[in-house]
Input
Amino acid sequence: MALLEDPDEIFYLDPVFQSTGFNALMIGHSFFKPFAVGMSAHAERAGIDAHEQTVVFSGGATGAPEALWENASKGDMIRAVLDEGGVDLFAMTYHPDYPGLRGYQLWIDYALKSNPGVRIAIALPWNPYPASITTAVDESTWVSGLEGQFHAGIRQLRREYPDTEIFSIPYGQSAWELRKLFDTGQLPDVEVLQSRDRPAIYRDNLGHAREILVELGQLVWLRSIYGVDLDNYDYEPPYQTDLKALAQRITDDYTTQYEAVYDAPYR
Output
């Protein structure tokens, strides 16, 4: 951990707490929106001043960056926010129907015109249709996608935009971490894997998040974006399971593993 003279400095090392909020623009689908929306309340609770955000939502594959670029109405909404300038953080999601980098490149190029210091976050969600696969397959396919195509894309974007901070938010890991606890009887807050009515991880066959997954994923977002030490975060999720400790481990392990594999900083 680096000791920074300026506590608000963003540094390419482990998550460092930033007490001044970002003016954030966040665009994505339904596996992305609940986590983006939750950042306002979490930033306030964590003592982060002046956090502001605009969230633009479009369901399913239409929430991918390239699809939103090509969407006349919502694309124009996003461009209008960027045209105003002052955007510090531009967060986007991923959808497998758009596996390439074109959408990210188009939006980054556009954002930099009026927001030269913008930071780019790309948030990787969990696998869809989770009930159709085992927990082991869920974990292995997510990890292989992360370590293969997703990390390759992040590294390519960093090469193309060397003066822009580009980092990832691995909140999709939250889903299969909860599944592993559930499978071993260590998730007392959940009765079934999937349900709209009973306590569950997922709401439906597609895999939309129930409340416990939203809570955990939001904590991963908070630490990934603002470097909040969740062990000392004055907020207690309404669950028996220690979601703060789990989110802290997800983000910290991700940082360590990324740097070990690529011999390069996570941020």
Observations:
- The first strand starts at residue 23 and ends at 28.
- The first helix runs from residue 33 to 37.
